[in-house]
Amino acid sequence: MVLKLHGGSLSTCTARVAVILHEKQIPYELIEVDWPKAEHKSAAWKKNQPFGQTPYIDDDGFILFESRAIAKYIATKYASSGTPLLPSSNDPQSMALVDQGASIENNNFNPSAEGLTVVLFFKKLRAAEAEPKFVEKWETTLQGKMEGFESLLSKQKYIGGNELTYADFFFLPYGEAIIKLGYNHLTNEIEYPHVARWWKEISSRESWQAVKDGVKGLPAQN
């Protein structure tokens, strides 16, 4: 059975899962949520995702939600497929660094990047005005984190150590979103050269190019 990804083709969190599936070369079918009918808030949807959010996967009957948990599951279950996204030395310290990298994204990047995307992009889609106090809050918070990212990436090549792992890909959806909004925190080679080097590498990967403008699924190869 082909893995089913239930989510939205333009959903940031769905893209976070899809890019990992592409890296691992795992065929999957996108089951597009019916946004106008608020399908993700329906009783049927909440049987699989009790919080009424996207995405979730159905991997031959195994249901899992939360995009970061799904990404780690895929990287682990399909470790021998596609790009290795776990450290080659699968010891507790190496794995702890990957978990640290994932936590860094979730706590020190995502809140600000997602916040800016919500107030400056998604609210405009609903014809709502961006509130300046929230824009200022997220801009200030994100700027305050950049020194930490630069320091970390000056000492190691990737966010979870010196090997590419699934944690690096967690930054892509909202990193891409804030760049489109005009923020250069991830591309500023003068102020943050190590961040810019890292971002250029991960954002130019073929897997991200395949999903960044819309998740479409990945058919099985004959």
Automatic annotation (TrEMBL):
PROSITE patterns: GST_CTER, GST_NTER. Pfam families: GST_C, GST_N. GO terms for biological process: glutathione metabolic process. Keywords: Transferase. Residues 91-222 form the GST C-terminal domain. It comes from the Eukaryota. SUPFAM superfamilies: GST C-terminal domain-like, Thioredoxin-like. Residues 1-82 form the GST N-terminal domain. One of its GO terms (cellular component) is cytoplasm. It catalyses: RX + glutathione = an S-substituted glutathione + a halide anion + H(+). Its EC number is 2.5.1.18. One of its GO terms (molecular function) is glutathione binding. PANTHER family: GLUTATHIONE S-TRANSFERASE RHO (PTHR43900). Belongs to the GST superfamily. This is glutathione transferase. It comes from Serendipita indica (strain DSM 11827).
